[in-house]
Design a protein that fits this description.
This protein is of the alpha/beta class and 276 residues long. It is 38% helix and 16% strand. Strand 2, helix 2 and strand 3 form a beta-alpha-beta unit. 43% of the residues are buried. One fe (iii) ion (FE) binds next to loops.
Length: 276
């Protein structure tokens, strides 16, 4: 089972691998830079080599880089879209130092421009930053639909993938808290939600799961994550997610609110113990 959590370590890839092992993870997610934006630390070749050796030895699955939250490819402001383009391109260049992994981003918020304009702007930025030769798979994250977020409906994800020239090489990361908050009942009707996803996007595009409980009821459009089993989705529903025949081979990344590594270690151990 490929399972891990979101980690942040001050000492590079080496530190991320150390913390992953400490929590019993064989995959992990990390921010490419400060989640609120800002400059990224330069890549240290020695750190990368060290990490790649550990990842091979420990049989890590794909690591998932998460773009900064401030990256909004469909902002109404030209300079915000320029920032998105620059950060996106820089992150993708950096990811090639750890080839063959995943890069996840929030489609963005159209801030009153309308979903259609938002989708066109997101696809436009993808066309400027994606390279046919890159080894990284770029993932669109399913969103809760709060505010003017694009990606709260599976059809919007599909529209972006269809519109981007290299969309056929992209994938999707499904966040259980986000889709629940968007109104997809992953607790009561997981099969139905997956059928819907398959119809709208295609299950072959699904490459990663953000495994989170939600503080809010179905359809709340809030996006407040809860610890596994402490939210409205509940432990049994999340256990069904990790065991579902269509999902069980995907990598699962926890983004649960924990203060210490021991919290994620306990969640990972719990989910591993419930694996069938
Ligand atoms: Fe996210
Ligand atoms: Fe997420
Ligand atoms: Zn979220």
């Amino acid at each position: 089972m490929l399972i891990g959590c979101h980690l942040s370590a001050a000492d590079g890839f080496r530190g991320l691998a150390r913390d992953a092992i400490a929590v019993g993870a064989n995959v992990f997610q990390f921010f490419t830079r400060n989640p609120r934006g800002g400059a990224a630390k330069p890549i240290d070749p020695e750190d990368v080599a060290d990490f790649l050796a550990t990842a091979r030895k420990e049989r890590f699955g794909p690591i998932l880089a998460h773009a900064p939250y401030t990256l909004n490819a469909c902002s109404a402001k030209e300079d915000t879209r320029r920032f998105a383009r620059e950060v996106f391109a820089d992150d993708l260049a950096r990811m090639e130092h750890v080839p063959g992994n995943l890069y996840n981003f929030h489609p963005g918020s159209h801030v009153g421009q309308g979903v259609e304009t938002g989708i066109a702007q997101i696809a436009g930025i993808l066309d400027e930053v994606l390279r046919p030769e890159q080894s990284t798979t770029v993932l669109l994250e399913t969103m809760s639909g709060k505010g003017s977020e694009v990606g709260g409906r599976f059809e919007e994800i599909r529209a972006i993938l269809d519109r981007a020239a290299l969309g056929a090489r992209m994938g999707v990361c499904l966040d259980t808290c986000h889709v629940w908050d968007a109104g997809y009942d992953v607790a009561g009707d997981l099969d139905g939600v997956l059928r819907e996803f398959d119809r709208a996007v295609g299950l072959d595009r699904l490459r990663a799961i953000h495994l989170n409980d939600s503080r809010n009821p179905l359809g709340a459009r809030k996006d407040r994550h809860a610890r596994i089993g402490e939210g409205c989705i509940g432990l049994e529903a999340l256990v069904r997610v990790v065991n579902h025949p269509l999902l069980r081979d995907l990598p699962f990344y926890l983004e649960t609110p924990q203060d210490e590594l021991s919290g994620w270690a306990a969640e990972i151990a719990l989910l591993r113990s419930r694996r069938r």
